[in-house]
Design goal:
about 20% helix, about 200 residues, globular, alpha/beta, five-stranded parallel sheet, 12 strands, Leucine-rich repeat, LRR (right-handed beta-alpha superhelix)
């Protein structure tokens, strides 16, 4: 009887891992369906597989949960999607040097284990969502070379002052407003594109 209970518990544990992996695969597939991929960089992203850990440009931890997306200079275009906020163990989102556009979904602020968010040199627009202030593990934030506008949320400066955020590059965008000297550190790079 005890061995049957143990087998049942193991099956439940395995099933929950598979469901988590499938939900992460579903989130990545939702993004893939919104992207234009002329070089077939995402060809290995097969939603019928048990989990996305065998896909190119995806790194997982020992529990088969996505920790890293490396899609820099991949010639991708399209938006980031809210479903990316479901990748609860994601630590690196590296999508620099593409033609990605649209706004940053507020759901990206759910990625509290994110260490690096590199969106530089794309075509992103709109305001930086205040939800990025939830990224308490963030060390590197590169948003330079886009078309962001509005003001930089004060929550990001709080991450610099109180958190791990060591590099915040938001240069070459179209921000408005004033940043007070007390808000800046050596690693924060803010530049007026008209001054270049």
């Amino acid at each position: 009887m005890a061995s049957q209970i143990l087998v049942c518990l193991l099956l439940v544990a395995v099933a929950s891992v598979v469901v988590d992996c499938n939900s992460e695969g579903d989130a990545l597939n939702a993004w893939k369906t919104q992207l234009v991929d002329p070089n077939n960089v995402l060809q290995s992203w097969d939603p019928t597989l048990v989990n996305p850990c065998t896909w190119f440009h995806v790194t997982c931890n020992s529990e088969n949960s996505v920790t890293r997306l490396d899609l820099g200079n991949a010639n991708l275009s399209g938006p980031l999607v809210p479903e990316l906020g479901q990748l609860s163990n994601l630590q690196y989102l590296e999508v620099f040097g593409n033609n990605l556009s649209g706004a940053i979904p507020t759901e990206i602020g759910n990625l509290t284990r994110l260490v690096s968010l590199n969106l530089q040199h794309n075509q992103f627009t709109g305001v930086i969502p205040a939800s990025l202030g939830n990224l308490v593990s963030l060390s590197f934030l590169n948003l330079n070379g886009n078309k962001f506008s509005g003001i930089i949320p004060s929550d990001l400066f709080l991450l610099v002052q109180r958190g791990n955020l060591r590099v915040m590059n938001v240069s070459d965008n179209t921000f408005a407003g004033t940043v007070h000297r007390g808000n800046l550190t050596v690693t924060t790079i803010i530049q007026d594109p008209k001054a270049s």
